[in-house]
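Before a computer can learn anything about folding, someone has to put a protein's shape into writing. The three-dimensional part falls to structure tokens, numbers that each stand for a local backbone shape. The protein below has been through that process, and both of its lines are reproduced in full.
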Amino acid sequence: MTNKFISNKLFINFKVISYILKESFKISKEIFIMMLLLIICESIIPFINVILPKYIIDELMSLQRVDKITYLVLLITIANLVFRIIISYANKFLVNRNEVLVNHFTYIIGEKLMHVNYERLEDPDIQNLKEKALSGIHMSGGIVGIFSQLSKVISKAITIIGLVYIISIFNPMITLILLFSLIISTLLYKKSLKIKYKFWDDMIPSNRKFAYFMDLSTDFKYGKEIRLFEMQDLIIDRDIEFINENYNYMNSSNKASGLVTTTQKIVQQIQSSLVYLYIAYKAFYNSITIGEFTLYISVAFNFLSSANDLFQSISNINRICRYSEHFLQLSKIEIVMNETSQTIEEYNIFKHLDNIEIEFKNVYFKYPNSEKYSLYNFSLIVKRNECIAIVGENGAGKTTLIKLLLRLYKPNEGTILVNGMNINNIEFEDYIGLFSAVFQDYKLFAVTLQENINFIEEKEINENVSDVINKVGLSSTVENLPYSQITEIYKLFDKNGVELSGGEGQKLAIARAIYKKAKIIILDEPTASLDPYAEQEIYNKMRKLTKDKTSIFISHRLSSCKFADKIVVISNGKKIQEGTHEELLRITNGKYYDLYNTQAKFYKQETSKITYDTN
């Protein structure tokens, strides 16, 4: 069982190392030159310091030629100086390249996550894998650590083989002692490695929890809630709890690995004692020269040191691979969003679409790991340039409907059609180009206000963006910004950046949606952060801006649905009503009537002076 476990880990490590080397080669071929220099220099130095002193001592004990002794001393000094300078330069080069490699591998994660299916992106397992992958890039010396550790493994292996060969020429008995201790140390190392693997596995859940609560204490986004609700003690208590949990894991692991490590030290000490006793015996009976005595002692010391370094480097590589394995798993996730069975005829029809009609046909959907259907036998037709309002209680299935329409998820049963074509048979890039959306949890980015709208890096004011800003009523806000619409959003990278209010941020998100000039506009609670007067302003403007487009609104405020051509009421994933605001209010025993009148008492006074432009 142990051998199979180790074999599996070695195979995984080989795959991880191969992947890291291949990706790194694309970025910096010089890394491999430095790695080769490290191997050469670290392999040669031990032999210089083992062999040459023997000849110096032999010369001192015999002919005592000053020129030869001087030559050998200078050779040792200069060789050590040159090789150690090269080693120092190569290691510094690798450290400097670490940031480049970290950025490259972080970019790979970002690119993968931006293209992976949204359905998989919401999966907690994928999110956990992402966090582990990001941690793996930085831990244990970073990605570049694999190069320095690999060079050490190769150079120390060369050193051990060379030392064994040298000593076997002079004295086979010492060779047997050294090889026997190496075999024992290898077996003990395999045992130690298994203990460490178990320790790393046990630590992962606790480390994730600890990292989360540490992030809470350092992320300014949570600063207001932490202070307002006095959460400091809770967070500190959780931090201490996980620190203690980690300590207990470490303590139990150290007890198990400590016995193995102690045994290794005892074996190494026995090896050293046997070698020294044997060498002393030979020297006492004049079987070897003083120079050979020095050689044997130096070989034994360097063999022991190289074996320790070899096992330590292998352990470090295992640790790096252990963390980087998650990165490899994430990079291998398949992207299937763009796989379609679109025919040439369908492609040509889609490319020339003008009058778009959407149809949900007997759609069933439930989220992964859920037994409850979010949409159940749902059918709906959205006609060209029609304005549809989707209403219902929380959890009714409104946002799920939008996710399916945008192909973020696929229905379990049923189909969604665009002019009779199954949306899954249309190339994703072409299909998603039909839509523009403002989500309830819209996101703004730490770039300029203008770039938040057109997503083009520009240093000059774009008049098309200015026009959209004016249409959504954001002009007065922009005029008061330090650099107009070129002002950075947030202060993360610019002290002159601006923090927009909730309503301003929502208007900016709406401006982004309008700027795209898509044929279908989707707004999921677009006015959630606005007061009723601002809401009226936005809806009146949106109605005019989208009069030649198909628009789908999701709203909790039923008073804002008056302007819609058609209102669809959803309950428990089913469509239970459909009609205009006036038609649905005439059905006094209907869900819409109940919802509207329940809300009316809360906003009747607020909205008594508000009129919605339905033209």
In short: Confidence is low (pLDDT under 50) at residues 605-610. Residues 232-284 form the longest helix (53 residues). The beta strands are 358-365, 375-382, 387-391, 413-418, 421-422, 435-438, 520-524, 550-554, 566-571, 574-579. The first strand starts at residue 358 and ends at 365.
